[in-house]
Amino acid sequence: MALRKKRKPASLVATTSRHLIADKLPKSPISEQYRTIRTNIQFSLVDQQLRSIMVTSSGPAEGKSTTASNMAVVFAQQGKKVLFVDADLRKPTAHYTFQQENFKGLTTVLTKQSELIETIKATRIANLDILTSGPIPPNPAELLSSRAMEELLAAAYKQYDMIVFDTPPVLAVTDAQVLANKCDGTILVVASGSTDKDRAAKAKELLESAKAKLLGVVLNRKKQKDSSYYYYYGTK
Fold first, then answer.
1. Do β-strands 162-166 and 82-86 pair in parallel, antiparallel, or remain unpaired?
2. Is residue 4 part of a domain?
3. What CATH number did the domain enclosing 114 receive?
4. Is residue 8 part of a domain?
5. Phi, then psi, of 158 in degrees rounded to 5
6. What is the structure's pLDDT at 223?
């Protein structure tokens, strides 16, 4: 049984968040940088199929959610069937970014209050579906480490080519570490001029101790002279 839901009329989702630049301005230099990141991700694991990516940061306000959502868009633009999952169960933002309701979502699926098929929502972007966070729970880390989470992943892998997770910052809570070893790869986002070097190194250390497959780092908000590019992908 297919997991895709009927798309809403365009009038109901006429605009998306300004953060979805890969969709709104696909020919912009910044969108091209997201596509470069996508290419580097695809070449990062030569002998292993990459089906799921977790995006996190060391601390708040470093751009992880913007990066995660735009990465989901560029993978969908490539023709892959993509599911974007808002696994930040403490400060979720995907329902705002994609203009969706959030009465049901990841938390209601994991607690068996709703079925995955009825909870996934289609976006106006071709090939891209979304699973919002759902109501904020009292035990996010426990939900993400549950058997129900493994069952959700197994079901999603049957219907999607790529699953992109947005997770809380590594140094704030344990959620990202819990989910890291369930995903095929992890991307760490740092903000130029604001992310402390020691904090970034600590985040990398915690992810590796959780057996995360750290694919690389996205340096965010780095403005280059005579250029509007401000994202690049770096190896660990």
1. parallel
2. no
3. 3.40.50.300
4. no
5. -75, -20
6. 66
**pTM of the full predicted structure?**
0.86
Domain limits for position 123 = 18-234
**The two structure tokens encoding residue 72:** 């989901």
Assigned domain for 228 exists: yes
Going from the C-alpha of 222 to that of each of 56, 167, 195, 225, 229, the distances in angstroms are 18, 22, 12, 10, 8
pLDDT digits (tens, 9 = 90+) for 49-103: 899 999 999 999 899 999 999 999 999 999 999 999 999 999 999 999 999 999 9
Domain count, the chain: 1
CA distance 107 to 54: 17
| pLDDT band with cut points at 50, 70 and 90 for residue 5 | very low
User: Rounded to an integer, what distance in angstroms lies between the CA atom of residue 43 and that of residue 141?
Assistant: 31
DSSP three-state, residue 186: strand
Whether 213 maps to a domain, the answer reads: yes
Output phi, psi for 106, to 5 deg. Answer: -55, -45
Q: Tell the burial category of 125 from Cβ atoms under 10 Å away from its Cβ (0-12, 13-18, 19+).
A: buried
Nearest-angstrom CA–CA distance, 236 and 234: 7
